């Protein structure tokens, strides 16, 4: 059995010469390639990787950043201000990864199912459609909205849902604003320990205030911005999948090397990125 | 042209939302209040305030169903108020499309309505933009004119039938490529708003969005299922309970559309000039728009190539410039010289003033330093053309007439609507 302490996949592989052959099928000139449902990334036949499909569902209150997170991960322009998602919008991204131990390359097809939180409450068919056969559920909270974090317990305890067969990941959005985080790093750690769920922190857009008080929104979905998040997500998906198939015994869902901190937010960046 | 839109409740003037075009600074709260105040004052005296002109802008008010007030503030380009009214009408029907008429007529929970209205922003913002306004001011849907599209009709019909529906279509880069007869039978406004909704979707997505049809079904929602077959080419179908989005994706998409992959690619690569292949365009033409006012279809082209050695080449106008010239020519002709043609479904007073002409005009033109414009208003067609200034004055009439005659005969204007019995 392999040691997974340092991770399943090679995190910097996408920068290597070997990795570039694959990355170039999904990124071109620093821009994400966009695929319709009849299209696939074109990779030379002699190096064609195994394709794996994942359905990923997002849960979180309105405005928490579901649509922005999907936009970042799939290479679409992020919404500048909050427009509620008017129904189910399901977007696709492809991402190649290389396993550390076997050197095998996988191409993951990630299909994100994002639904506006308010619209889902109005129409009955939306939640079931997102839930059906989902491989993973992302629970989103925002670093600058404490109530969205407190909601997580409720969502994870929801008895109408059955998460027993899906990977669960908590995603902390608006990480660029973490200097004014409303959640302490201790709380986060305790939460992860209690639920044994990995955490992914994302910055979907950078909002900075200019001297004149104008807020400038910059998208950040360059290759180097998104690769770490995609790698982490794909690592979790593959680990969960391998455990299900009996190929892996266990996986350190909660990074234990995180040292207890004196409970302040300034350490957040150091501990969780 | 900067534009501001304010939406308030008629009772009490509670602000619901406000939007501003592009990077324009939003209206201050006090300004919004004032816009409402004037209207309320008039209402209290039994007067309906429709519009006013200030030094450099135009303001138009509309009250919908005694419950919603919309105010539009636009830079004044000297055109008729008809067009501001049309935009307000589109904005309200966008709200109907997403939320249904009932929740806008009887306002229960204002806080909740304000939140719910946020789903409308992308389409409303697109209506305030300058870039693509031709479909909205002419209340018609912009179509792609390529003959190859006809071969996608059968695949579309069978796909839509398989989805247990009769309403379906394919959009290519935001313009309608093919549609079922029932879809063509929707009002121009409905087709136009649905096109804008589809345009607002991410290009790698499939989606399932509850929509109301402002005229055909304002109170009962349908599900608009849209799947991007290629990035920029999307098939949509209006359904009720079945099929689910997952079923469409996994069972129906590949089987119906993969056999036509090459054809879809061809359509996606169609030139941006959007001119029917068989038609020869005079090299002096810089931009044009043709509307079929009966079928509510329009073709717009502002990117005609400048031919080497042609007259247009001497004074090249940018695409944006051509677009704004054409739009402004349209706005200044229709509603003043030509009568307005609304969708028959539209029942509101349009704000149209009786024409100042004793007769009905059929053609109009305008000359400027760096361009010329010509327009023709015939039975079912309207043509608006921008010419290079180098085209001799006496030629623009004949060229326009011949151009319209050849456009009229093109396949794109075959009436595909279901025959009403
Ligand atoms: N500063 C900052 N703002 C963000 C980030 N992610 C999202 N936002 C902002 O949060 C707001 C809401 O984001 P959305 O992604 O539309 O929210 P949502 O969860 O999809 O909301 P619903 O569709 O209504 O359920 C937008 O104004 C975004 O710009 C981030 O990483 N940093
Ligand atoms: Mg959303």
Which spans of chain A have pLDDT < 50 for at least 5 consecutive residues? 257-273
What value does the average pLDDT of chain A take? Answer: 85
CATH superfamily of chain A, by name, is: P-loop containing nucleotide triphosphate hydrolases
According to CATH, what is the class of chain A?
Alpha Beta
Count of DSSP strands of chain B? 16
Shape of chain B: globular
Largest sheet of chain A: 6 strands, mixed
**Alpha carbon gyration radius of chain A:** 18 Å
Give a verbal description of the structure.
Chain A has a single domain (2-250), classed as 3-Layer(aba) Sandwich (Rossmann fold). Chain A is 29% helix and 23% strand. Chain A has helices at 17-23, 66-74, 117-122, 126-131, 146-157, 185-195, 223-244, 268-272, and strands at 27-28, 31-32, 50-59, 88-98, 105-115, 136-142, 167-173, 199-201, 205-209, 215-219. In chain A, strand 6, helix 5 (146-157) and strand 7 form a beta-alpha-beta unit. The relative contact order of chain A is 0.17. By secondary structure, chain B is an alpha+beta fold. Chain B has helices at 29-44, 82-99, 102-105, 110-116, 121-128, 134-137, 153-162, 181-184, 188-199, 245-257, 261-268, 319-333, 393-408, and strands at residues 3-9, 15-20, 51-53, 57-64, 68-75, 141-142, 168-172, 175-179, 205-213, 217-230, 233-239, 285-292, 297-301, 363-367, 371-377, 381-388. The N and C termini of chain B lie far apart (45 Å). Chain A binds chain B through residues 34-39, 62, 71, 74-76, 81-93, 116, 118-119, 122-123, 125-126, 129, 132-133, and chain B through 98, 115-116, 118-119, 121-122, 201-210, 221, 223-224, 227-233, 241, 244-246, 249, 253-254, 257-258, 261, 264. The structure holds guanosine-5'-triphosphate and magnesium ion. Residues 60, 62-68, 79, 81-82, 84-85, 116-117, 173-174, 176-177, 202-205, 207 of chain A line the site of guanosine-5'-triphosphate (GTP). Chain A: This is Ciliogenesis and planar polarity effector 2. Chain A: GO terms for molecular function: GTP binding; GTPase activity.
């Amino acid at each position: 059995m392999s040691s997974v302490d340092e991770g399943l996949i090679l995190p910097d592989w996408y920068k290597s010469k070997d990795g570039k052959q694959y990355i170039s099928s999904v990124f071109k000139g620093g821009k994400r390639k966009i695929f319709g449902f009849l299209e696939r990334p074109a990779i030379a036949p002699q190096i064609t990787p195994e394709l794996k499909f994942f359905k990923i569902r997002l849960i979180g209150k309105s405005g928490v950043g579901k649509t922005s997170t999907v936009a970042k991960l799939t290479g679409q322009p992020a919404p500048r201000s909050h427009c509620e998602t008017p129904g189910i919008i399901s977007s696709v991204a492809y991402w190649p990864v290389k396993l550390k131990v076997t050197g095998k390359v996988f191409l993951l097809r990630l299909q994100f199912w994002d639904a506006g939180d308010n619209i889902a409450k109005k129409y009955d068919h939306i939640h079931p459609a997102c839930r059906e056969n989902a491989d993973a559920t992302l629970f989103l909270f925002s670093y600058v909205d404490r109530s969205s974090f407190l909601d997580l317990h409720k969502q994870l305890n929801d008895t109408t849902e059955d998460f027993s067969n899906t990977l669960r990941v908590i995603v902390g959005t608006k990480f660029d604003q973490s200097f004014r985080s409303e959640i302490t790093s201790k709380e986060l750690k305790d939460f992860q320990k209690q639920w044994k769920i990995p955490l992914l922190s994302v910055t979907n857009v950078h909002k900075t205030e200019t001297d004149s008080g104008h807020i400038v929104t910059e998208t950040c979905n360059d290759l180097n911005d998104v690769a770490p998040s995609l790698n982490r997500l794909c690592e979790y998906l593959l680990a969960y999948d391998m455990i299900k198939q009996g190929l892996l015994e266990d996986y350190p869902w909660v990074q234990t090397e995180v040292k207890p901190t004196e409970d302040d937010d300034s350490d957040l960046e150091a501990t969780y990125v | 042209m900067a534009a501001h839109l304010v939406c308030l409740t008629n009772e009490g003037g509670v602000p619901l939302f406000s939007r501003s075009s592009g990077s324009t600074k939003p209206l201050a709260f006090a300004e919004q209040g004032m816009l409402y105040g004037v209207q309320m004052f008039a209402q209290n005296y039994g007067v309906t305030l429709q519009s006013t002109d200030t030094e450099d802008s135009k303001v138009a008010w509309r009250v919908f169903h005694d419950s919603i007030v919309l105010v539009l503030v636009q830079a004044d380009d000297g055109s008729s108020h008809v067009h501001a009214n049309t935009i307000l009408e589109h904005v309200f029907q966008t709200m109907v499309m997403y939320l249904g008429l009932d929740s806008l007529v009887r306002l229960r929970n204002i806080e909740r309505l304000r939140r719910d209205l946020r789903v409308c922003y992308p389409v409303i913002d697109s209506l305030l933009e300058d870039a693509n306004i031709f479909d909205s001011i002419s209340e018609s849907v912009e179509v792609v004119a390529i003959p190859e599209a006809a071969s996608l009709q059968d695949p579309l019909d069978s796909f839509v039938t398989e989805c247990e529906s009769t309403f379906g279509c394919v959009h290519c880069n935001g313009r309608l490529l093919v549609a079922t007869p029932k879809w063509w039978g929707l009002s121009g406004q409905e087709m136009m708003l649905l096109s804008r909704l589809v345009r607002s979707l991410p290009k790698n997505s499939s989606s399932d969005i509850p929509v109301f049809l402002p005229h055909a079904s304002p109170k009962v929602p349908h599900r608009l299922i849209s799947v991007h077959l290629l990035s920029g080419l999307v098939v949509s179908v209006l359904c009720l309970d079945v099929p689910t989005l997952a079923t469409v994706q996994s069972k129906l998409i590949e089987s119906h559309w993969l056999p036509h992959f090459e054809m879809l690619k061809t359509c996606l690569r169609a030139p941006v000039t959007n001119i029917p292949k068989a038609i020869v365009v005079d090299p002096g033409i810089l931009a044009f728009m043709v509307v079929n006012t009966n079928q509510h279809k329009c073709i717009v082209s502002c990117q005609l190539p400048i031919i080497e050695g042609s007259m247009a080449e001497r004074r090249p106008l940018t695409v944006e410039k051509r677009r704004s010239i054409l739009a402004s020519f349209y706005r200044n002709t229709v509603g003043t010289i030509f009568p307005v043609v609304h969708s028959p479904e539209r029942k509101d007073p349009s704000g149209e003033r009786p024409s100042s002409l004793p007769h009905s005009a059929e053609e109009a033109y305008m000359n400027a330093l760096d361009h010329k414009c010509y327009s023709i208003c015939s039975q079912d067609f309207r043509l608006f053309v921008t010419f290079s200034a180098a085209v001799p004055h006496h030629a623009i009439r004949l060229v326009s007439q011949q151009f319209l005659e050849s456009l009229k005969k093109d396949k794109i204007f075959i009436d595909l609507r279901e025959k009403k019995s």
